[in-house]
Amino acid sequence: MAATRKSRSALSVSVPPPAPGGERAFIARLRAEAEAHRGRHAGLRLGIGDDCAILRPPAGHDVVVTTDFSLEQVHFRRDWHPPESVGHRCLARGLSDLAAMGATPLGAFLSIALPPELAVAAAETMPKAARRKASGARAASLPGSLKPESWFDRFLAGFLALAEKEHVPLAGGDTAQSPSFDFSGHKQSGLAAADITLVGAVPRGHALLRSAARPGDVIYVTGALGGSAAELLALGRSPQDFAARTLAAAHHPHLYPQPRLAAARRLVAGRRLHAGIDLSDGLSTDLAHICEESGVAAELDTSAIPIHKLARDAQQDGWVPSALSLALHGGEDYELLFTAPRWTKIPRTIAGVSLHPIGEIVKPRRNRPSVILRESDGSQTPLDSGGWEHFRGD
Ligand SMILES: [Mg+2]
């Protein structure tokens, strides 16, 4: 049975091709697109086309690796999210993890499974240059100005636009056709899934760890929180209003989150920071991760938490009882949370992103919750983790 076979190159296919000639065409397509968008990148010595990619981190750096799934009906819906947004978000999630560690991207590896109708479209809409390349002829020009057409075209356009902006080359991956039959052989609609792996480099010993927070540290966050959850609410109410949102823009925190790579790089350069994490699951959950890994507790000043305008609008429009709860528990903001000793000078903005002190790390105490909200009247309330958590059983 050749239904699955072992991957054999840095970008290969592990199921029968989606259409006659589609397998090689698909790979050639991705390769041509990756090369067109890659530019000069010193960290990538060899990209798509061999058994492995070769990355070369700068001298004196550690290599960091992260991986993230984007599953249809879990992380995105084809009837809600424009394909460009799905591609952008797929890469942004991995890049945000690199930012959380203070790392610079070396290469991205994209594994994607598409249902037959999307896979066929992807192979058929291969641009001429890639088609020539697939047939062995020398490509006269690379498809830098691809006109997006199929779902996959548009997914890739969103993915590569962010890759180009953040100078991260697509260095390899895998493709597969997701099944469209159930166990009884009945036809069902297949689902799309993408898995992103990011490899990055960080000066040796300087990665920001979740386990490095110390009592007395100030807790900072970048940007504003709750915007992604608020935009998701709006998206769910009227997806048709967002169908034309095909370009990354800062005012679409859910559809096009902006990973804070530049801010993170500037922050770690020459400054003493302790712990770091990106806010993917929500402030309440992600700060609890820091407390758990560092063996500390945290106190937040409620009035200091920066709340995104879209979250305030959602409260004003009566969609949610509290904008603050979106900022605390909403998730997918992909802002950074970091801690630093009190004497570390932190500017108000860096790389165009605002920085906000929101509380402090304290010693853990028996029978006291690990994260507490301090109100302006001096009262305190425990902050339970309320963010996104997989496998909760509901
Ligand atoms: Mg993360």
From TrEMBL:
<protein>
    <recommendedName>
        <fullName>Thiamine-monophosphate kinase</fullName>
        <ecNumber>2.7.4.16</ecNumber>
    </recommendedName>
</protein>
<feature type="binding site">
    <location>
        <position position="280"/>
    </location>
    <ligand>
        <name>ATP</name>
    </ligand>
</feature>
<dbReference type="InterPro" id="IPR010918">
    <property type="entry name" value="PurM-like_C_dom"/>
</dbReference>
<dbReference type="InterPro" id="IPR036921">
    <property type="entry name" value="PurM-like_N_sf"/>
</dbReference>
<dbReference type="GO" id="GO:0009229">
    <property type="term" value="P:thiamine diphosphate biosynthetic process"/>
</dbReference>
<feature type="binding site">
    <location>
        <position position="51"/>
    </location>
    <ligand>
        <name>Mg(2+) 3</name>
    </ligand>
</feature>
<feature type="binding site">
    <location>
        <position position="97"/>
    </location>
    <ligand>
        <name>Mg(2+) 2</name>
    </ligand>
</feature>
<feature type="binding site">
    <location>
        <position position="388"/>
    </location>
    <ligand>
        <name>substrate</name>
    </ligand>
</feature>
<feature type="binding site">
    <location>
        <position position="97"/>
    </location>
    <ligand>
        <name>Mg(2+) 4</name>
    </ligand>
</feature>
<dbReference type="InterPro" id="IPR006283">
    <property type="entry name" value="ThiL-like"/>
</dbReference>
<feature type="binding site">
    <location>
        <position position="332"/>
    </location>
    <ligand>
        <name>substrate</name>
    </ligand>
</feature>
<feature type="binding site">
    <location>
        <position position="97"/>
    </location>
    <ligand>
        <name>Mg(2+) 3</name>
    </ligand>
</feature>
<keyword id="KW-0418">Kinase</keyword>
<dbReference type="Pfam" id="PF02769">
    <property type="entry name" value="AIRS_C"/>
</dbReference>
<keyword id="KW-0784">Thiamine biosynthesis</keyword>
<dbReference type="InterPro" id="IPR036676">
    <property type="entry name" value="PurM-like_C_sf"/>
</dbReference>
<feature type="region of interest" description="Disordered">
    <location>
        <begin position="369"/>
        <end position="394"/>
    </location>
</feature>
<feature type="binding site">
    <location>
        <begin position="173"/>
        <end position="174"/>
    </location>
    <ligand>
        <name>ATP</name>
    </ligand>
</feature>
<dbReference type="GO" id="GO:0009228">
    <property type="term" value="P:thiamine biosynthetic process"/>
</dbReference>
<feature type="domain" description="PurM-like N-terminal">
    <location>
        <begin position="49"/>
        <end position="182"/>
    </location>
</feature>
<dbReference type="GO" id="GO:0000287">
    <property type="term" value="F:magnesium ion binding"/>
</dbReference>
<feature type="binding site">
    <location>
        <position position="68"/>
    </location>
    <ligand>
        <name>Mg(2+) 1</name>
    </ligand>
</feature>
<feature type="binding site">
    <location>
        <position position="51"/>
    </location>
    <ligand>
        <name>Mg(2+) 4</name>
    </ligand>
</feature>
<feature type="binding site">
    <location>
        <position position="281"/>
    </location>
    <ligand>
        <name>Mg(2+) 5</name>
    </ligand>
</feature>
<comment type="similarity">
    <text>Belongs to the thiamine-monophosphate kinase family.</text>
</comment>
<feature type="binding site">
    <location>
        <position position="67"/>
    </location>
    <ligand>
        <name>Mg(2+) 1</name>
    </ligand>
</feature>
<dbReference type="GO" id="GO:0005524">
    <property type="term" value="F:ATP binding"/>
</dbReference>
<feature type="binding site">
    <location>
        <position position="66"/>
    </location>
    <ligand>
        <name>Mg(2+) 4</name>
    </ligand>
</feature>
<feature type="binding site">
    <location>
        <position position="68"/>
    </location>
    <ligand>
        <name>Mg(2+) 2</name>
    </ligand>
</feature>
<keyword id="KW-0808">Transferase</keyword>
<feature type="binding site">
    <location>
        <position position="278"/>
    </location>
    <ligand>
        <name>Mg(2+) 3</name>
    </ligand>
</feature>
<comment type="function">
    <text>Catalyzes the ATP-dependent phosphorylation of thiamine-monophosphate (TMP) to form thiamine-pyrophosphate (TPP), the active form of vitamin B1.</text>
</comment>
<feature type="binding site">
    <location>
        <position position="210"/>
    </location>
    <ligand>
        <name>ATP</name>
    </ligand>
</feature>
<keyword id="KW-0067">ATP-binding</keyword>
<feature type="domain" description="PurM-like C-terminal">
    <location>
        <begin position="214"/>
        <end position="312"/>
    </location>
</feature>
<dbReference type="InterPro" id="IPR016188">
    <property type="entry name" value="PurM-like_N"/>
</dbReference>
<feature type="binding site">
    <location>
        <position position="75"/>
    </location>
    <ligand>
        <name>substrate</name>
    </ligand>
</feature>
<keyword id="KW-0547">Nucleotide-binding</keyword>
<dbReference type="GO" id="GO:0009030">
    <property type="term" value="F:thiamine-phosphate kinase activity"/>
</dbReference>
<keyword id="KW-0479">Metal-binding</keyword>
<comment type="pathway">
    <text>Cofactor biosynthesis; thiamine diphosphate biosynthesis; thiamine diphosphate from thiamine phosphate: step 1/1.</text>
</comment>
<feature type="binding site">
    <location>
        <position position="174"/>
    </location>
    <ligand>
        <name>Mg(2+) 1</name>
    </ligand>
</feature>
